Predict the 3D structure of the following.
Amino acid sequence: MTIHDVSGLTMLGRQVAAPASPEEAVLERVPSPHPGTRYCVRFVAPEFTSLCPLTGQPDFAHLVIDYVPGDWLVESKSLKLFLTSFRNHGAFHEACTVGIGLKLVELLAPAWLRIGGYWYPRGGIPIDVFWQTGTAPDGVWIPSQDVPPYRGRG
């Protein structure tokens, strides 16, 4: 196994305060340990929060991010802090979900990425948002996201 130099990372192994906004957040990447090998990486954030841009009320989502790496992986602590930065950020569900996917694609240039934003209802209606870069590569096992339609989602 190849050991990669991570000395350029600014958060890993350090005490870091949560960024105040997604614009202030820094996403970091590390080299893939298996460049040229196609595999799926999944991150699940079942307690994602943001604010409604009109009312300032909290919105809650269960995010599932799947991607097939190219040369890079997202560094998980930086992803956690990036997602945390939305807690005081006012944006609609669609802006949050698709914006997170676009930011990851910009950083990683993955072979493929999809994000599912399973938003808890406000006003009685859940708004789920799904985005992907295209068709998943052949030969890669991409599991179902398996988040049930809202019925006391858990």
In short: Residues 1-5 have pLDDT under 50 and may be disordered. The chain is about 15% helix and 25% strand.
